[in-house]
Amino acid sequence: MKKIIYLFTVITLLCTVLLTGCGQSGTAQKGDGSFRIVTSFYPVYIATANITKGVDGVEVVNMTKPQTGCLHDYQLTTDDMRTLDSADAFVANGAGMEAFLDKVIKEHSGMKVIDASKGIELLKDDEGENPHVWLSITDAIRQAENIASQLAEADPKHADAYKANAVAYTDKLKALQAKLHAELDSLPHRDIVTFHEAFPYFAKEFNLNIVKVIEREPGTEPTPSELQETIEEVNKLPVKVLFTEPQYSPSAAETISRETGAKIYSLDPVVTGEADDSALDAYITTMEKNAAVLKEALK
After folding, report:
1. Looking at residues 51-56, what average pLDDT do you find?
2. Within 13 Å, how many C-alpha atoms sit on residue 274's CB side?
C-alpha cells in the first residue's frame, strides 16, 4: 500500500512539473527572481532597453535579426519560438505590425504580452490601420509609458525601477521633440514623396504633406501606372526630392529621379540596428539625422 501511495505521489509531481513547463514560461519557474523580456523588433527593443536599463535580474532580448526591418508579413522561425519559450514577457509594437501575434499568444499562454501601442489613435488609409506609430515622437512617448506600466504589472518586483527609467527616457524624448519642432516647423517647403507607408505619423507630427508613396509595401515594385503617377506628382513639386529608406532597394526611386531630375535623400524609419548598448540612444540619434536630412532637402 505504501508503495502505491509513493508511486502515485511521484507521478502527480511529474505531471505538475510537465504541465507547468508546457507552452509557457514565467517567474513561477524561476527561484532567483530574474525576469526575461523578448521584444518583437528594433523600435520596441530600443524603448524597452531604456526602461529596463540598470535593473538587476532583468534581461532584454530582441527576437528578430538586426537587419529584419519592419515586420510586414514576417513569419516566425524555429529560433524565434525557442527564444519565446524562455520569455516571461513579450513586448510587441501592436497596431497590427506583428501579424503572428495571435500565434504567439496561443502557444505561450503563460507569457505576458505587452502591447506598446495600447490606446494610441491609429492613422488609416485604403490599406487599413497604419502600425508605424513610433515615428511620431508623441506616440513614441506613449509607447514607452505603455511598456513601463505593463512591465510593472507583469514584474512588480521591479515596478519602481521601470517607472523611474520611463520618466528619464520620456524626458529625453520630449527634449528631442522640442528640438525637432524648432528645426522643422519653419521649413519653407512641406511636400514630400516617401518610400513606403512608414512616415505618416512623422508627417503628422511635423506638419509635412506626403503627396505620394513610391512603394506601398517595401520590396514590392510599383506598377508602370503607379510609377507614372508618381513621376507626374514629383514634376509638380517646387522642390523635387525623393526619400528612400536605407533598409530597402532604391531602384524605383532612381527610375523616378532619372525621369524628373529629383534628388534622392534617405530617411531612416529606425527599424534596424544592433541590440546592444548603442541601442539606448539609437532612436534619438536617428531622428536627429532624419531632421537634418529634411532641412537639407526642403530648404
Report:
1. 97
2. 3
Spatial distance between the Cα atoms of 250 and 214, rounded to a whole number of angstroms:
10
Whole-number Cα distances in Å, 130 to 7, 207, 223: 57, 18, 22
pLDDT of 14 reads: 41
Q: What are 92-102's pLDDT values in tens digits?
A: 999 999 999 99
Q: pTM higher than 0.70, yes or no?
A: yes
Residues 237-274 pLDDT 10s: 999 999 999 999 999 999 999 999 999 999 999 999 99
The C-alpha atoms of residue 91 and residue 87 are separated, in whole angstroms, by 10
Instruction: Tell me which amino acid residue 172 is.
Output: K
Residue 51's nearest CA partner among 177, 171, 167, 175 is 167
Q: Which residue has the cell 535593473?
A: 55
For 57, residues 6+ apart whose C-beta sits below 8 A from its C-beta are 32, 33, 34, 35, 157, 158
CB-CB contact of 137 with 205 (8 Å): yes
Element (H, E) at 265: strand 263-266
Query: Is residue 8 over pLDDT 70?
Result: no
Cβ neighbors of 160 (< 8 A, separation 6 or more) are none
d(CA 43, CA 202): 14
